[in-house]
Structure formats: C-alpha cells, structure tokens
Amino acid sequence: MKMYPLKFQPIYKAKVWGGRSLEKLGRTLPTGQKIGESWELADLGATSVSGGGGGAERSIIDNGPLAGQSIHDAIRHFGGELMGRLPPCDDGGFPLLVKFLDAAENLSVQVHPSEAYTQQHSEAHLKSEAWYILHAEPGAVIYKGVKEGVTPESFRDAIADNRVEELMIAVAARAGEIHYLPSGTCHALGAGILVAEVQTPSDTTFRVYDWGRQGRELHLSQAMECITFGPADTSRHEPGTKIEREMTTVEGLVRCEHFHMDRVKLKAGYRQALTDEQPVVWMVLSGKGEIMCEHADDRAARTAIAGGQTLLLPAVMDKPMLSVEADMTLLEVTFPCATNDLIA
C-alpha cells in the first residue's frame, strides 16, 4: 500500500476552563460539555496531570485505507515510509503532540518538568510547547515567566496569599502571534484565547495556582523543583523570518531543538509537487485545496483539505501534488533534521 496524507479523529477533552469556541473551526462538539482541548495528533503511552500512571492516548486515522488504525500502529507497520529518517520516541510513538486549546477561563498557573527533574524522575517528561494565537478577546493575556527578582521563597508566599498573578509576566494576546514556552517556564493561558499548540509528547503538568477553583490538585513541591525563575528566554527561538514569493509566503515562527514551526500562506491557483524526506504536520487554519497522489489506493488518491483540519504528511508518498482552490493559511511543523522545503 502507498502512503497518503493522514487525517485523525479529534480527541476532545472537557475542561473546567473550556468553552465552545472550537465550533469556530467547524467542529461538532460533544453536547453540553465545556471543551478545552482537541488533541489533533497524539501518540502517548501514558497521560497524567502530575506525571504518573495515566492511560494511553493515541490518535485514530480517519481517512483512506488505514481508517480505524492508530497512529502508533501505522508507525510500527510502515516505519520509514511514514517517518523517513526521523526516529520515533523511545516507546515507538510519534514525537509531537498537536492540539487546539479553547480557554474560556484562565488555565491554571503551571510548569512542566525541567531537564534536571526528568533525569531524576523517569515517569516525568519534558514538555516544551508553542502557542499560536488564533483568536483573543480584547484585553486577553497570557502569563509567560516570572518577574525579575522573584525568589522561590517570595513565590511560595504569593501562592499562600493568592497573589501569584502579581508575580507573573502578563503579555497581551494578539491573533497571529507565536509564543514558545520551554519546559521549566511558569505559565498560564488567560481567558478568552483560542490557540493552536505544538509540543513535545508529554502530558506531565504541575499545577502551581488555580485561581481559587476547588477540587483540583496542586503540585507545589514538584513545581518548585522545576520552575526557571525570571522571564522566559524564548526570543532566540522565535525567528520572525519571512520569505515572500509570487504565490507563497513562509514565515518562521519557532526554531527549537524539538521542532520547527512556520506559517505558510498559499494563494488560490497554487499548484506544487510536495517533496520531503521526513513527516510533516499541517494545521490548516483557512482555505481549501487537495493533495493528489499517483498510484495510491482509490480511497487515498485525492485528499481534500479545508480550514480547521490537521494532517500528517508521511515521508514517502507517490508524487504528491498540492492544488489550492481558495487562499490557504496553514501552520507547517517539521523537525530539525528535515529538509524543510516542502513548500517551495
């Protein structure tokens, strides 16, 4: 069987801070629930807020002859055809977790494990992530790092006195902006924000402060071991480069050791063969088009693309050709070892 662009069944997560804004992406959400997350591409062997012992979460393919199979099984069966030279995670899984997040209310102030912490706790995993802001209500902010001069002692006091917000660095949230958050950054997504998130494949999160909500566990001892005090050192990972051509614009959003992320704009009528030797993830934000593959199964020869969809493009496809019907904007996620020239 020839490989083809893969789509997945979204994994919806009800959250106390969630809402219904994912309907703006054309989604049909579970009735009567506040949905905070849509896991678009996930391949985790275990999940847990505090880093221990949850069940597996693996995306199920939703199109073509592989429909109904998990991404984990597809990697195991097709190896290099899907992954190219990119090695899977230690457990054989896909090395990214891709989501949409809808914060109708503030997320908890939280931190993900530092490298030093993961070396001492085998059950914990690094979680470096990038937020691309799709929509933000007026006055919405994200919290990105701790103010200069804050010490662990003064931060503990602020937690006890419900003054954590005073010590956090608040950044205005604006649609179209990117924020990279390496593991160890104390952070929170503020109310009224919809984001696309790309992260390393971990669900290990330590809550520091939950805005007075009751019934959700905090993980203060673990968090204090992991927090990098001071402003988040992320500017070097947010290049802000732009390459403009007649039919395409490619803007560099994130360059880190785990993944590269670009915003790609394609004009209607654009037609281009796709070439790469590594898997590529597309989060399609708007527009319409299709990818045609020669000699693929009839169910996979033509893959329609529309805004709100997430696709995984395998490393090896048979002469894939992209045709854009309506102006398209997408987030393209590649890996540092990739050729990174899928869109020319």
Can I get a quick summary?
This protein is mainly beta and 344 residues long.
Task: Tell me what you see in this structure.
With 344 residues, this protein is mainly beta. The chain folds into two domains: 6-234, Jelly Rolls, CATH 2.60.120.10; 242-334, Jelly Rolls (Sandwich). It is built from six helices and 22 strands. Strands 1, 15, 16, 17, 18, 19, 20, 21 and 22 form a nine-stranded antiparallel sheet that branches. A six-stranded antiparallel sheet has the order 2-3-6-13-8-11, with no helix packed on it. The longest helix is centred in the middle third of the chain and has 9 residues, at 152-160. It is globular, with a radius of gyration of 20 Å. The relative contact order is 0.19.
Topology, pairings included?
Elements: E1 6-7, E2 11-19, E3 35-41, E4 43-44, E5 57-58, H1 71-78, H2 80-83, E6 97-103, E7 109-111, H3 115-120, E8 129-136, E9 141-146, H4 152-160, H5 164-167, E10 168-172, E11 178-181, E12 187-189, E13 193-199, E14 206-209, H6 220-226, E15 242-244, E16 248-255, E17 260-266, E18 271-273, E19 280-292, E20 302-306, E21 310-313, E22 321-334
Antiparallel strand pairs: 1-21, 2-3, 3-6, 4-5, 6-13, 7-14, 8-11, 8-13, 9-10, 9-12, 15-16, 16-17, 17-22, 18-22, 19-20, 19-21, 19-22
